[in-house]
Amino acid sequence: MSIPIRHIILFASLASLLVSTGRADQSREEVALFIFGDSINDAGTNNYINTTADFRANFPPYGKTFFHNPTGRFSDGRLIADFIAEFAKLPLIPPYLQMKDGEFMAGTNFASGGAGALVDTYKGFVVDFKMQLKQLKQLRKKLRKKKGKDQANRIIREGVYLISIGSNDYLMPLVYNPALFQSISMEDYVGMVIGNITTVLKGMYKVGGRKFAMMGIGPLGCVPGMRLLTRNGSCSGAANKLAMLHNTALTSILAKLETRLHGFKYSYFDFYASGSEKIRHPSKYGFKEAENACCGSGPYKASPTCGGKRGVKEYSLCRHPEKFLFFDTYHPSERANKQSAQLMWNGSLSVIRPRNLEALFKYEHV
């Protein structure tokens, strides 16, 4: 019995579609997500190190919105990295220190709350940026042992490296040692921070990383914790100046690295611009409060007492975290995190450049 030619063409087209779809899914699943930095993306690293409650969020009400239990994330729910994983069709990425030997799902989270690019930033209480690089090297070794050298190298090479680092390097001296900037210029200090970031980026490249999603620093001076330090509750000019100097220097070095290192590709998220826009026009983005934190105590709920585990038991918690830009003293709410992640994933060049993360994930190293 002969089969009509139109049926053959239809079958061939369906087969081609299934094959191409399978390849797309396979390629997408092969792109791992490696997360580095500070509390913006810490999914629980600090639960596994010897530190204090000041650097942990593994107690209520953290996690109340989505997980309904604390996970170690410094928010009421998910973080930017969690949403990026979701958009990339990946599961939640676990902390490196939580993973068992030989275990690897779709990436690893090395971020540590309080971490800085400078080793001395909260030294002894966090996993600093350079130590996170060492952990990446350890992971590569474990992957090679489990999956073989070629496959491990491909996972490292094709993965996306999401990084948020630098804020603590500026917050620590501004809060605890403001006289520092009488002995060193802001420009020179920023130069040291950027120098360390550059060293680690080159180290990641040497390990095999090629695709980097760098988050700039947001308007530090306008977080509740910094408003508390100004006379009238306005944004801290010094903190915002440091953030802008940092972001300018960071974008410059990223452009240079893409030119000088073969295969180096990056996306830069203008956290400062997007954050400032939400602070100026909160209602436009669904927020009713952009100055006060949801959880804390004192003016602006800016004292870091959320959860009552950091020396002071008394604290106040809002009923609707989704209406607040900030969940606690320094950290965004889940709603704010989701909005930032959406901008990073498929936003315009005004906030994510020279390519968004959707394009970065699809890029294949040659």
UniProtKB/TrEMBL annotation:
Q: Which PANTHER family match?
A: GDSL ESTERASE_LIPASE 1-RELATED (PTHR45966:SF1), GDSL-LIKE LIPASE/ACYLHYDROLASE (PTHR45966)
Q: Which residues form a coiled coil?
A: 126-153
Q: Does the keyword Magnesium apply?
A: no
| Annotated Pfam families | Lipase_GDSL
Source organism per entry reads: Eucalyptus globulus
Q: Which residues are the signal sequence here?
A: 1-24
Q: Write out the similarity annotation.
A: Belongs to the 'GDSL' lipolytic enzyme family.
Identify the InterPro entries for this entry.
GDSL (IPR001087), GLIP1-5/GLL25 (IPR044552), Lipase_GDSL_AS (IPR008265), SGNH_hydro_sf (IPR036514), SGNH_plant_lipase-like (IPR035669)
**Protein name per Swiss-Prot or TrEMBL:** Uncharacterized protein
Keyword Signal attached: yes
Tree of life domain = Eukaryota
